[in-house]
Amino acid sequence: MKRAGPLAAFTLLVFAFMMYVAFPLAMMAGESLKAGGVFSFHQYASLFDPANGANSEAILNSIFVAVLSVVFSGLLGLCLAFVVTQVEFPGKAVVARLAILPIALPPLVGVIAFRFVFGSSGLLPRILQGILHTANPVLALEGIPGVVIVHVYSFHVYTYLFCAAALRNIDGALIDAAAGLGSRGWRTFRKVILPELRPALLASAALTCMSSMASFTAPLLFAGEKRFLTLQIFQTKLNGDVNLAAAQSVLLTFVSLGLYAVMMSVGGTPQTARGGKGVARRGVLPVPPILRRLLVGGTFLLLLAELLPVAMIVLLSFVREGSWTTQLLPDRYATQNYLSLLGERKMLEPLLNSLLCAGIAVIGSILFGVSAAVLASRAQGRFWGKAANIILTLPYAVPGTVVAIALIVSFNIPRWWTGGMGLVGTFWILPFAYIMREYPVVVRSVTASLETMDGSLLDAADGLGASAWKRFRSVLLPAIAPAILSGAVLVAIASLGEFVSSIMLYTYASRPVSVEILAQLRQFNIGAASAYAVCLMLLILLILWIPSFLGRGGSGRENVTAMMDSSF
Amino acid sequence: MATLSLHQVTKQFRGRAAVCGVDLDIASGEFFAVLGPSGCGKTTLLRLIAGYEKADSGSIVLGGRDITHCHPRDREMGMVFQNYALFPQMTVFENVAFGLESRHMGDREVRDRVKVALDAVHMTQKTADPVPTLSGGEQQRVAVARALVLRPQVLLFDEPLSNLDAALRTSTREEIKTLQRESGVTTVYVTHDQGEGMTLADRIAVMRDGVVRQVGTPRELYEAPEDPFVAGFLGGANLLEGLLSAEGIFQQGAFRIVLPPSHYRPPGRATLALKPEGILLAGEGIPGSVPARVDAVEYMGWMTTLRIASQGVSLRVIVPSLSGALSLRPGMTIWFTIDWEKAFVFPGGE
After folding, report:
1. Which of A323, A547, B146, B163 is 20 to 30 Å apart from A142, CA to CA?
2. Per-residue pLDDT tens digits for A83-106
3. CA end-to-end span of chain B, whole Å?
4. Whether A47 and A28 share a structural domain
5. B58–chain A Cβ distance below 8 A for any pair
């Protein structure tokens, strides 16, 4: 009888995972093996058929952009991490905080903001056009270079966070030892520091590659005529060829899962733990003054490039609709966009939809994620524990486009485990997709917390005669509460700005704010689109500060960094 | 090998003195230990000698050369860190060769010198092993080899045994002593373990709060401590702070004892240091004996530690585990006398 509770929970969990996570992915794989309703490898054959140029081009472009994104994001992130951890300069603390801005921005908002400044009709190319008196904007970002630069803008933060954490953890004695043994700066960096950063570099490279392959928004807004795998899935689905879209999705899923496996296996921490007594000393490599000035100058330039798009979007949120045509900057501003956004029910609806969906996603992810992590932790250290953890967090590696296709092929008809309802075309499909994409974040966060928890606490409670529920409520829950909060914050942020799955699953009544931003942009309502984006950013900022407000942590940056660490 | 001298070396961190006006003269080939509790500034002193910290004032001279402002690589010193600081991604050979390669030595010379260094620490059989696969003791040996391979003028150790278990600590301690004796290299060894300092060092500097309180041979420090802290730290002496009268009577509260003339000091505040082995069990009624109650008895093999209370003071006593001591039980009354050779009176408080 004592085991009945956990057994029931375990059964329920397995059922939920099989029916709501595994089933859609299996259905998608099944659809990819059909042509004309019968079993066939036709879709895969056409996917790799050189004669079918569109698919090959999409695959090659995605891979090419992923490779460039990894290289340049890695270099930029490493330089930034090096400057922030190894060089002293005024304003360093502010730089360290602002450096994470690109990942705190919802993908769509970041890309749009970037386009306002660096796109073909953006501020900087038009300023250059005015200065140089050319016919077209100068250095406007578009096509593949545009996508790569947007990716580098967003994804270098992964390398920055991973490498900065690793650099902070490097034992200062190693650098002292190298210096004492006669090694100079560059040799010490190459021989001592870089090998220590290897896991962080590999993990961030895999994450960057995964994110680049799954990237949808940057190609959508910058690629122009160029084809990408995610866009191709979207287009194929729009054309009604579900089987080919499923095959394309399966291919993308395998690439992502492979990269996820690399990321998980190498981890992000350096090989050495700090040893010794007292306060651990951070290793600081002496940097020649010229290089130091160069690095600090470059960092401030980068920061400017990161802040400018955000400043631009805030400015544009006040533009009077229809007043910005050929001028470099709008000349008429008003609060009209915000007033109509907050005052008109139709305008407010997308924000409310996003808030509602994010709220449901947070609750669902916590319920499923926490129970999954706690149950998996019962087999901690054993094969089954590890296997359960890997399987449970796999959906994290599934791109948003793929999640959407999987849900479309699975729940376009009523299923008994969805209450006899076909979810596609209803409001519920959005929070459902968000939960499927984001609950692994809660699993990872809570698992990390459980792994560091002192097991003897539960033993003590057990020995003192506490019931299973009392052990959970009085011992376990307080210990993992900060991890749950961190996970919940991350789920809320990701769900609020979610765009990739939403664009394929929304209905007009349930349209989330990200989809509405794109719709407003397509109608050239730049002010309204920007006002939505600013509201979204403010909401995210508010959510990021919840943990420190509740006294669960320090600054927003620390929360994001901690969440990144626990999530990846 | 060379002599090492420190003159008025001072180092502050955020306005707090970590090392304060330290003067030391370490002879060529000497094994010199710096001993003190955690936070006393001994590691900072070692890092100042190695060049990892810059002195705020004072000078450091090695073999007649002022090295105060030299980079660590130009000081001709080898350091063994507390956690060894071995490069984890390299093999044993690569770690030991690192310093030689940094000095652009030829492959053949590197190979030969690494072999000699690893031979000295009995690690030649593990040359190709990755560092993380080594045990703590083996890592410690590789760290010593890495420091020795550069043939330094001075070898610096920062609590190198603190990460080893008790048995390994003893054997490694003997190995370090043998290695130092054979190589004859001037050695500065930082530790908080008085046993380590006493057994290894030719001379010891005892530090507290950034200040060197006394320098001397282990025996000098033990038998003739110059201040209450040294007496307490090295010999575990019972320290009683009280008043000394002109008649040679020391009093702390109800505790009152008559000092022999050899221990007279100017009247006023004074600290009486009684070594635990200098408190001798005596029979009742023996002249000068004092009664006490046994509070605790700890049997420790050849010796027994007692905690006794006499006239309001608590004293630690070490006696041989003879039949008399073995029959003692908490609550019993005993009588004791003082071996004044093992008792010291210091004017002023501790």
Report:
1. A323
2. 998 888 898 888 888 888 887 788
3. 39
4. no
5. no
- Residue B50 has its nearest CB partner, among A180, A198, A278, at A180
In this structure, what CATH number is given to the domain that contains residue A77? 1.10.3720.10
Residue A555 pLDDT level (bands cut at 50, 70, 90)? very low
Whether A538 is covered by a domain: the verdict is yes
Which of A195, A272, A277 is the closest to B82 by Cβ?
A277
Residue A173 lies in a domain: yes
Nearest to B271 by CA among B288, B287, B289, B259: B259
Half-sphere exposure of residue B139: CA atoms within 13 angstroms, side-chain side: 21
C-alpha closest to that of B196 among B230, B158, B161: B161
The answer as to whether A314 is a domain residue is no
Which residues of chain A neighbour B89 with C-beta distances below 8 Å? 195-196, 198, 271
A69 with A6, same domain?
A: no
What pLDDT does B91 receive?
A: 93
Q: Which of B48, B52, B79, B139 to mutate to test the interface with A (most CBs of A within 10 A)?
A: B52
A53 with A154, same domain: the answer is yes
Give residue B146's identity as a one-letter amino acid code: R
The complex's ipTM works out to 0.74
Q: Return all residues near B134 (Cβ < 8 A) that are at least 6 apart.
A: B92, B126, B142
Q: How many CA atoms lie within 13 A of A174 on its CB side?
A: 31
CA distance A191 to chain B (A): 9
How many CB pairs below 8 Å do chains A and B form together?
85
> Is residue A119 domain-shared with residue A234, that is, in the same domain?
yes
Cα–Cα distance list, A120 to A148, A164, A394, A398, A416 (Å): 15, 34, 38, 32, 50
Give domain status of residue A79, yes or no: yes
For residue B72, list chain A residues with Cβ-Cβ distance below 8 A. Answer: 176, 179-180
A416 and A546, same domain (yes or no): yes
The string of pLDDT tens digits covering residues B220-263 is 999 999 999 999 998 889 999 999 999 899 999 989 999 999 99
Distance from CA of B148 to the nearest CA of A (A): 11
Q: In this structure, is the dihedral angle defined by the CA atoms of residues B167, B169, B172 and B173, taken in order, positive or negative?
A: negative
For chain A, the domain total comes to 2
Query: Which residue of A169, A175, A181, A184 to mutate against B (max B Cβ within 10 Å)?
Result: A181
Question: Chain A within 8 Å of B142 (Cβ-Cβ)?
Answer: no
B68 touches chain A (CB under 8 A): no
CB of B114 closer than 8 Å to CB of B190: no
Residue A364 shares a structural domain with residue A260: no
- Alpha carbon distances (Å) from A279 to A172, B16, B35, B38: 11, 15, 20, 12
Q: Which of A250, A273, A296 is the last residue of a domain?
A: A273
- Would you call A181 and B43 a contact, using CB atoms and an 8 Å cutoff? no
B62 in contact with chain A, both atoms CB, cutoff 8 A: no
| Statement to judge: residues A46 and A26 lie in one domain | no
Predicted pLDDT of residue B323: 66
**Contact residues, chain A to chain B, C-beta under 8 Å:** 171, 173-174, 176-184, 187, 191-192, 195-196, 198, 271-272, 274-278
pLDDT digits (tens, 9 = 90+) for B253-298: 989 999 999 998 899 999 999 999 999 998 887 887 889 999 999 9
**Residue A55, CA distances (Å) to A49, A142, A258, B223 in order:** 8, 21, 21, 89
Whether B260 contacts chain A with CB within 8 A: no
* B132 in reach of chain A (CB within 8 A): yes
pLDDT of A568 higher than 60:
no
Q: Which domain holds residue A237?
A: 42-273
Backbone φ/ψ region at A142: left (φ over 0), alpha (ψ -120 to 50), beta: beta
Of A220, A251, A273, which residue constitutes the final position of a domain? A273
pLDDT at position A275 is 46
C-beta atoms of B51 and A184 within 8 A: no
Which residues of chain B, if any, have pLDDT below 50?
none
Nearest chain B alpha carbon to A272: B88
Q: Each residue of A425-469: pLDDT tens digit?
A: 899 999 999 999 999 999 988 988 888 887 777 777 777 767 777
Query: Is the confidence at residue A282, as pLDDT, over 70?
Result: no
